[in-house]
Amino acid sequence: MAEQHTPRSLIVTFYGAYGRAFDGPVPVSALIRLLGAAGVDAPSVRSSVSRLKRRGFLLPARAADGSAAYELSEEARQLLEDGDRRIYGTPRLSQKWLVAVFSVPEQERHKRHLLRSRLARLGFGAVAPGVWIAPAHLYEETARTMERLHLTPYVELFRGAHLGFAPTAEAVARWWDLTALAKQHEEFLDQHEPDLRALQSGSDPTPERAYRLYLPALDSWRRLPYADPGLPRELLPADWPGDRAAAVFAELHGRLRDLGAGFVQA
User: Among 254, 248, 255, which Cα is nearest to 206's?
Assistant: First the structure.
């Protein structure tokens, strides 16, 4: 989770959690106020917004009062909607697998790198060069991603069962770095479980305090359902920390998100 809590990451997290609820584009002044509450200074907000604009995530617009503002591009909205299903949903666990087989001509090798990086971001594990695997419930999101990036001519997708020859749990441990994934869950717990314990033993926080707690917790959490894409529980180690991490985030989300919205809309 090396990129967490950078100004750009927090802005993306803010739009995912609260920015879409604004009545129109989010004014720059509001971004500066709200990211300032999360510890990001105004110059960093402006430079990060500029980078997100260059990437096509944000589009310049005008607020109702005519002031400078930014709105999400259609691609960004689709990305955030896909993210909602991952971040807030419960994975549809099954024993079926989605297999992506790709071949890219040497003269287009930059697309080979793009394919690998996008499959990795979606949560795929590597079986062999040009062969990647993920839980079958990721089909729709994978198909949308390949279509959005114009990569469908290079990829074939298959759905099926693992038939051998190693036990599936052993194969999963080769396809994914389970030690690294467990460490990410443990880091999340180290950072945010103490906040939950404090909330459980105290009174409700103010809207501003709820916002200050929720935004970094969501920023930490939102990558985990991609790194750990809903692998069947019986294929994971007995002491897997992902269950506890998911429960901690779910309770933080339930306690803080709507309360923090009061500060955002103030």
Answer: 255
Among the listed residues 57, 2, 32, 39, the one whose alpha carbon sits nearest the alpha carbon of residue 215: 39
Asked if 218 and 17 count as a contact pair (C-beta separation under 8 A), the reply is: yes
Dump pLDDT digits (tens) for 11-23.
Answer: 999 999 999 988 8
Q: Tokens for 138?
A: 């990721």
- Enter the pTM of the model: 0.88
- Which residues of the chain form beta strands (DSSP E)? 26-27, 58-62, 68-72, 97-102, 125-128, 131-135, 155-160
Summarize pLDDT for 69-110 with one digit per residue, the tens.
Answer: 999 999 999 999 989 988 987 766 677 999 999 998 888 888
**Contact criterion met (CB below 8 Å) for 81 and 15:** no
Which parts of 12-167 are beta strand (E)?
A: 26-27, 58-62, 68-72, 97-102, 125-128, 131-135, 155-160
- For 147, the token pair is 């279509």
Tokens of 5: 């809590």
